[in-house]
Amino acid sequence: MLNFFEEIRDDLTYIELELKKTVAEFSSVINVAAEHLFNAGGKRLRPAFSLFSGRFGRYEVEKVAPLAVSLELIHMATLVHDDIVDGASVRRGRSTVQALWGNQTAIRTGDSLFAKAIEKVSGYDDPLVSRQLAKTCMNVCTGEFAQAKACFNPRQTLRGYFGRIRSKTAVLIAAACELGAVVCGAPRLVSRSLGQYGLAVGMAFQVVDDVLDIIADERVLGKATGGDIREGIATLPVLYVLDRGEKRRRLQEIICAREKDEGQIGEAIAIVKQEGGVSYSLEVAGRFAGRARSALRVLPDIPPRRHLDAIAEFVVARKF
Amino acid sequence: MLNFFEEIRDDLTYIELELKKTVAEFSSVINVAAEHLFNAGGKRLRPAFSLFSGRFGRYEVEKVAPLAVSLELIHMATLVHDDIVDGASVRRGRSTVQALWGNQTAIRTGDSLFAKAIEKVSGYDDPLVSRQLAKTCMNVCTGEFAQAKACFNPRQTLRGYFGRIRSKTAVLIAAACELGAVVCGAPRLVSRSLGQYGLAVGMAFQVVDDVLDIIADERVLGKATGGDIREGIATLPVLYVLDRGEKRRRLQEIICAREKDEGQIGEAIAIVKQEGGVSYSLEVAGRFAGRARSALRVLPDIPPRRHLDAIAEFVVARKF
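Above: the input entities. Below: the structure tokens describing the complete assembly.
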């Protein structure tokens, strides 16, 4: 993905500094925890989408910055609260906030990041920005919760899965794309199309993420493979096999078991791969990516359009 | 307090219905948890302040409603996250969300209430409303955290205490007063003065709350007396005695002990009462109330001004 990022490298560096400054505004323990999250890095995907989208309007990095920072803070806030809910001690190869400083700090850190994100974005004069972002946050919260409810529950539909990843991932990327254009004063038709692009690319991204959780190299992933299976979360590759695979009963047994050993997780991964769960899911991701690329067609043919097009292609092909 | 509320009874009922509708918008478990919080009731103090303040502008209850609902949702969100941090199983005589449905639901419920609050308030065209409320939320988050850090720590200053209760309680009441006027288009001088009133009355309110935690009748309070002492939280009455009381060493010993029995808590309460902690704190609360009443003087002399004046007086005299 770094190739496309090259195009916006200086502006991403600017955003990174703004994010660092924002994190420094927190006091005491929240600041330490927030810096820990900040230093863990990440792809800064949401800011990058906003920067590309902004170029469809009267682009200035300073106009996009509060939005980009806000999106990344919301993303960090959801990660830190997710890690409490999952009882996760490691993320991206680093200890989680609640593993290091306990639940209390993790709850307060998530709350503070969220509040700070809303504060950042409230500086825009167009009320649409706050309004859209607030709706997005509501959506993200309900999505995370839907995922939690679906754990260890085999009676799930594809529809339920798509609804969950939409709320959990795609709506925030859609907001990044749409609002990046809005804050730079792009016409409504342009920002809406970018929102549609973001939603579809976000869906593709999450489906691939769920595939990588099953097939990726652990060293590249920064966490153990099969994490979702371990936690009883049935993602698309698993749901596909649960619906029609020959060994669906055995797979269901493993997914729904509260306690499972590494051998069972390895067995489940093998079943999912053998019975076509991975290839089916990559096909679905490819379809979402295609939908994303179609949404770009109504946009003016300027360089950022080609970059966004290439990102949609890359999202499906990536190995990390 | 019910006498003043009589004046705005119909409008409070309207807000209550709006709040009920908003809570119904949540899905599944969040909805159940949010209804549990809603049904627990509460004084609806923040909405009431907004309704009174709105009357200094071109008042319509529909204009104030999204703000009032939002303030109450933020208040509920902080309560549910506080209860996780405190490990509290009972609040206002009812089981807490995390006692009934666990940490995960409590975290998600708080997040969702918060997101919904921001969504509600983002509907106003004046960006000042979102902006001010976002700042208030940041303040509330840091205040709760400061309190948590101060637990079991005897080296606290009065300044630290006032800073904490300012963030934890007063800023949200100040926002209720100020923004109630803003959303009804009152002049800036008027809304600012109402904000000053709210800040001072909020300080008085929290000081009295901390006094009641020590002296109130448990049946009226809905929870055990001496809760703060039990949790190692040194509030104003305790800090006063820790600073100058004859038995300050013994009091400090009890406050800082991680484990304490009912006898020790009773002993601490007796020390605080005997050594003037309660009367000093009520005097301080009286001074804040006086400051609140002064802030009203620049406002037009219409009936809501007299009600707000009476509320400031009542806050200090109340027994619950």
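Note for the figure: The mean pLDDT of chain A is 90.
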